[in-house]
Amino acid sequence: MNFDNTINTSTSIISYALCNMERKAVYPGSFDPITNGHVDIIERGLKIFDRIIVAVLENPKKQPLFSTKERVRMIHDIFSDQKRIEVQSFDGLLVDFVRENNATIVIRGLRAISDFEYEFQMTLMNRKLNPDIETLFMMPNISYSFLSSNLVKEVSMLGGRLTDLVPAEVEKKLKKSIQRTHL
Ligand code: PNS
User: Fold this and answer.
1) In a mutational test of the pocket of ligand 1, which residue from 88, 91, 94 has the highest number of ligand atoms less than 8 Å from its CB?
2) Total domains, the chain
3) What pLDDT score does 8 carry?
4) Which of 145, 149, 144, 122 lies closest to 133, judged by CA?
5) How far from chain centre, in Å, is Cα 91?
6) In the chain, what is the straight-line distance between the N-terminal and C-terminal CA atoms, in Å?
7) Does a structural domain hold residue 7?
8) Among 24, 35, 75, 109, which residue has the fewest nearby CB atoms (within 10 Å)?
9) CA nearest ligand 1 atom 5, residue
10) Which helix (H) or strand (E) holds 85?
11) Closest Cα to residue 76, out of 92, 87, 65?
């Protein structure tokens, strides 16, 4: 048996598979609601990855403004023209969701130093749970460095304008939901 040939053939098959392998990442979050900062990170991620799975956390302990279904739908609608984006909800461990979707990369946005400690802890815990999963941090445009879903909800509740901070459909949904809670 010629081992050299076998090794060469196996290496070629592996290289071929790697070259043709879809580069896939998971972008997890609460997205309650999605903001232009999140959209910016997704668009940046698409420059690196062939496919991004936006993973919306379904957390029975948290009381979100929008239901999981509403959050998924909003993201789906925003990226309806972008076939490389998939939106799913998940519960349980993020590392399990990533593995079940045959991915190994998690994308997280880093806005400011204040995000660092939480992200650092989460990354290292995820690494402890599954050393094969890597977290990639991306910085959004500076104009979104102050932006958060919580602030967006507060501004909306107090009647402030959200132009340039959230997609138009999210702004409409926020207005409706705030009217709903005031009824
Ligand atoms: O948008 P958020 O709220 O900062 O996203 C946080 C999220 C969803 C990434 C995080 O809470 C998460 O991964 N939850 C799933 C539960 C889990 O895996 N916990 C252990 C990781 S430290």
Assistant:
1) 94
2) 1
3) 53
4) 122
5) 14
6) 79
7) no
8) 24
9) 29
10) strand 85-90
11) 87
pLDDT of residue 132: 98
* pLDDT tens sequence across 83-101: 999 999 999 999 999 999 9
Measured CA to CA in angstroms, residue 76 lies from 80, 118, 129 at distances of 6, 27, 30
94 close to ligand 1 (CB < 6 Angstrom): yes
Residue nearest to atom 8 of ligand 1 (CA): 29
Cα–Cα dist 73/11, whole Å: 43
Q: Which atom of ligand 1 is nearest to the CA of 94?
A: 18
32 occurs within a structural domain: yes
37 found inside a domain: yes
CATH number, position 96: 3.40.50.620
Range(s) of the domain holding residue 173: 21-182
**pLDDT averaged over 10-residue windows placed end to end, the chain, 183 residues:** 54 55 96 98 98 94 92 98 98 98 98 94 98 97 95 94 95 86 61
Tokens 């992200």 locate to 119
Which atom of ligand 1 sits closest to the CA of residue 149? 1
**DSSP string spanning 33-45?**
T--HHHHHHHHHH
Output the pTM of the full model.
Answer: 0.89
In a domain? residue 10? no
Tokens, residue 157: 């509740």
